[in-house]
Each structure stands twice: as C-alpha cells, then as structure tokens.
Amino acid sequence: MEPILTINNLTKKFGYLTAVKDLSFTINKGNVYGILGPNGSGKSTTLGVVLNVVNKTNGNFHWFDGNTSTHEALKKVGAIIERPNFYPYMTASENLKLVCKIKGVDYSKIDEKLEIVGLLERKDSKFKTYSLGMKQRLAIASALLNDPEILILDEPTNGLDPQGIHQIREIIKQIAAKGTTILLASHLLDEVEKVCTHVVVLRKGKKLYSGRVDEMISSHGFFELKTNKEQELLSFLEQDKSFGNIKVEEGLITAFLNEPMSSEDFNRKLFDEGIILTHLVQRKESLEEQFLQLTDNN
Amino acid sequence: MLRLLNLELQKLLLNRTSKILIFVSFILPFFVILLSSLKINVFGFFTLELGELGVFNFPIIWHLTTFFASQFKFFFAIVVVSMIGNEYSNKTIKQNLIDGLSKKEFILSKFYTIVFFSLVSTILIGLISICIGLYYSSYNEFGIIIQETNFLLAYFVKLIGFFSLCLFFGMLVKRSAFALAFLFILFILEWIVFGLMAWKMDTDLSEKIQNFFPLKSMYKLIDQPFQRVAMTKFPDKGELVYDYAVHWHEIFIVLGWTALFVFLSYRLLKKRDL
C-alpha cells in the first residue's frame, strides 16, 4: 500500500499542556479514515501540525514518500479545518482564483468544483453574504480544486442545520466513491461509522486505537433478552462460561459474549432448559458504544 | 516572485478600503505638489507662486518633492498594517498556509508588495518632479537635472524601510490599530531615549547615536529642506549651513533595519502556532 501521510512519535506541547503525546500512525492511499476523539483530545492539533500551521514539539511526520517539503506536499492535499476561512470582500470565484494561484491550478477548475457543491449560480456573490452551510460547501470546493490525493476534513458538519449536514455528507460520500483518500476528524460517531473504513481513536492526546472500524474492540457482540422466568435465565447465564458481563435494565437482560455463539444455538439451549424467551436480539456494539467503552476503559 | 506579488495584489485591490487608501497615498502627494506649483491667487490680496522662490529649480526640486511626498507615507502604512491584520482576523493566513503557501512565501509576498508600491511611488514622484522642474527651473542643463537624483533613491529606501517596520509591527501585534499605536510609541520612545542620552552625555554624541534609531534613521535620509531654501536666499548667513545630502551610510542603516524587520517578521511567523 502506498503511504500518503506517516506520523512518527509526534508530540505537541502548549506550555505545560501536552495536546498530542507520542502519536504514530500511517494513512494509506484509497482508504477513508476517521479520527475520533472527545473535544480537546488533540484531533485538530494533530491536523494543524501536518498542515504546517502548528509547530511540533517532538517527533516527525512526512507526506507521501518523504521527499517533498511540507508546503509543496500541501499543494496536493485538500484540507478544511474548523470554520471556512475566506476573504469576506471577495466573491466565491475570486476566492477560489486566489487558491488556484497558491496551488498552481488552472482557473478552469473553479466552475467545475463549484458545480459539485452546488454553488455555481452564486459564484459572483460576495463570501460575506453566504450562509454557514454555503461557506462550508465553498470550503469543500476550494479543497477539491487541485483534485487532491487526500482530502482532510475537520468537523465538516459542525454548526450546520440538518439539511446542511445532509448536503455535506452526500458530497463526502460522492468523493469517497471516486476513490479519493479521506481523513475525517469528528466527534460525531454515526458520521464516521457511515463513511469510514479505518479509525484512529485519540484521548487526551494519546492514541487508543488505530485500525479497521470493525476490529476496534475484540468483541463477539451481545444478546438482548426478555423472559418471564428472569431468575432462572440469570442463573443460567452466570453458570455459562460463554458469557461475561450481564446487565439487567427494566426487565431487559443484556448478556455479553466471551466467544462466538449463534442465536439459534443459544435459543435451542435455553428451550432445553425450559426457559422461553419473549425477546431475543443479537447485536454487535455500535461504533458509539465501542468508542465509549474504549475511552472509558483507558 | 511575480506569483507572490500577483497574489497579494489581488488581496489588496479587491478590497475597497485598501484600494481607496492606496489611491489616496499616491494621488494626494501628487496633487499637493502639482497645486503648489501653480500660481495661487489668495483672495485677491496677493498671488502666491512658490515657483518664484526658486524652489522648483533643479536640483533642489528633488529634495523638496521627495521630502513632502514622504509625509504621505502614513496612508500606505495603514494599508500595510491592515493587510496583516486582516489576514489574522479573517484567519486567511491559516488557510493560505494550508493551501500550500510556505511561511517564507507569505512574508515575501507582503515584502514584494511593499517594494512594488514604493517603486511605483518613487517613479510617480520622479516624473512629476521632472515635469515641474522643466517648466519652472532656471537651469535646464542635463548635468544639473540629474544632480541629486539620489534623493529619489533615498525616498525609495525610506518607504521600503518604513513599510517593513509596519509589516513587523503588524505581524507582532496582529491587529492594525495596535500596530499603528506601536509605531507612535516607538516614535515617542526614540525621543525619550534621545532626551535621556542628551541629558547624561553630550548632545553631539547622542545625536549621532539617535541617527541609528529606526524611525530617526529613516527621517534622516531626507533632511528637512526649509533651511536649505533659506540658505539659497541668504547665502551669507553661515549659521544656516547644514548637511542635507543623502549619504551612503544613511542608506545602509535603513537597509539594515529593513532586513532585520523582514527577518524578524519571518521568525515570528515561523515560531507561532496559528
């Protein structure tokens, strides 16, 4: 696999505060990555360092094969961090023209990219007249101008209304479908779950996990059960070594598996014991539950 | 280099406020000099014609026009500090860097713009001086015309030096208004230090040291011309004689400050987390 971004033992300190601690991971071509973490976990700082706006304290990182300087590499990267930053007195197309000049891209791309984000008919309006959703879409158009090898998005739906969020997500999905590598930092887990194949989980500047989304925690899922013979069921579950943690909440029993087991086998076993279930659901933890579990345990 | 200049010119010329200020900083001195060269009838009492005083003779005209034109540099100074202040307040400096501009290129694009506008201003002043001079001057020999054109060079260096100082203050405090306040503080500070030195040591020595201070060294490039005009009127008054010429060491001092300010601006940006 072709690496796009390699980070080795990166550390960033703001005075006494360590925002990023000894962080290492690699972004490979073609995957969609999510950086997850609660607010203040160092997501934006990490992105700031690799994007040349925050100075690192220790460690190193390099783009692509490591032979290009950071600012040259950034011409092949598209990035939006936090809020869209443009010149308020310029129109959308003038703002994009400026970005073209910086990145060395042909002006013909401007209309093409404005079309993708649906701003073509507003291209001659001044940036300050735009709504937040439009500003964010313009930022995406700007990031796409150079047909980037990797698109970096930091909280792209922050502060948008539901329609705005939906529009942005649709655009991201379209871009991902074309095979562009994406790095998406967010604390909105369903957002990451929907589009990402890989995740990096951060907490307090430390990496808790990096790898595929579905391998995030070694879990075999859990059963949600209801029965009229609650006591018998509970004592059965406690004796069975296949089950670990058992929770009871308002008549709903949640039993976590230690080893794989199909719902069919489990149901048969209980039936033989004389326990009839009125409710049986087998599930895997959602990304949100996995994430909370991961961030709580560590 | 052209790419960086082009970048900054787009930022400036699409902004109405800076466009007006740039216009004013170029056109105003142009007009003031032009008007002063006309014959003005003051309410019918008497006619005022500065040309008759001989101030538009070559080579003294170079001294006069550059001195007066440089008083208008403050308008463009506002443009310089606001072109930094705006980048910070719009956070576009961050976006520029993310888009692939290096920190060095960012500072250079500002510096090239300063050099560009200083050059345009110098050329304009040069042209108007030639025109007025040719019209009024009693001496039109080529050798006399090109005498003291080094005032133009001094004017150019003075503008670059002053705007580089503004650039540095802009980078330092990130806000336009505070940067201008800093400029004023520096002005006062230079005089306080001079006053203290003159009080503790002798005045001659402290004046020599003062000539190395940033603002004073820029001012010293083109000395005030009034005394010189008076000198031409009363050639026998020996106490009026003073050294008004542009000296190479004066130019080097200002160029030194310019290099330092640009370098410090770059260092500041490099060390800073945006």
TrEMBL record, chain A:
<comment type="similarity">
    <text>Belongs to the ABC transporter superfamily.</text>
</comment>
<keyword id="KW-0813">Transport</keyword>
<keyword id="KW-0067">ATP-binding</keyword>
<dbReference type="InterPro" id="IPR003439">
    <property type="entry name" value="ABC_transporter-like_ATP-bd"/>
</dbReference>
<dbReference type="InterPro" id="IPR017871">
    <property type="entry name" value="ABC_transporter-like_CS"/>
</dbReference>
<protein>
    <submittedName>
        <fullName>ABC transporter ATP-binding protein</fullName>
    </submittedName>
</protein>
<dbReference type="Pfam" id="PF00005">
    <property type="entry name" value="ABC_tran"/>
</dbReference>
<dbReference type="InterPro" id="IPR027417">
    <property type="entry name" value="P-loop_NTPase"/>
</dbReference>
<dbReference type="InterPro" id="IPR003593">
    <property type="entry name" value="AAA+_ATPase"/>
</dbReference>
<keyword id="KW-0547">Nucleotide-binding</keyword>
<dbReference type="GO" id="GO:0005524">
    <property type="term" value="F:ATP binding"/>
</dbReference>
<feature type="domain" description="ABC transporter">
    <location>
        <begin position="5"/>
        <end position="229"/>
    </location>
</feature>
Automatic annotation (TrEMBL), chain B:
<feature type="transmembrane region" description="Helical">
    <location>
        <begin position="151"/>
        <end position="170"/>
    </location>
</feature>
<feature type="transmembrane region" description="Helical">
    <location>
        <begin position="111"/>
        <end position="136"/>
    </location>
</feature>
<dbReference type="Pfam" id="PF12679">
    <property type="entry name" value="ABC2_membrane_2"/>
</dbReference>
<keyword id="KW-0812">Transmembrane</keyword>
<feature type="transmembrane region" description="Helical">
    <location>
        <begin position="20"/>
        <end position="40"/>
    </location>
</feature>
<feature type="transmembrane region" description="Helical">
    <location>
        <begin position="177"/>
        <end position="199"/>
    </location>
</feature>
<feature type="transmembrane region" description="Helical">
    <location>
        <begin position="251"/>
        <end position="269"/>
    </location>
</feature>
<protein>
    <submittedName>
        <fullName>ABC transporter permease</fullName>
    </submittedName>
</protein>
<keyword id="KW-0472">Membrane</keyword>
<feature type="transmembrane region" description="Helical">
    <location>
        <begin position="60"/>
        <end position="84"/>
    </location>
</feature>
<keyword id="KW-1133">Transmembrane helix</keyword>
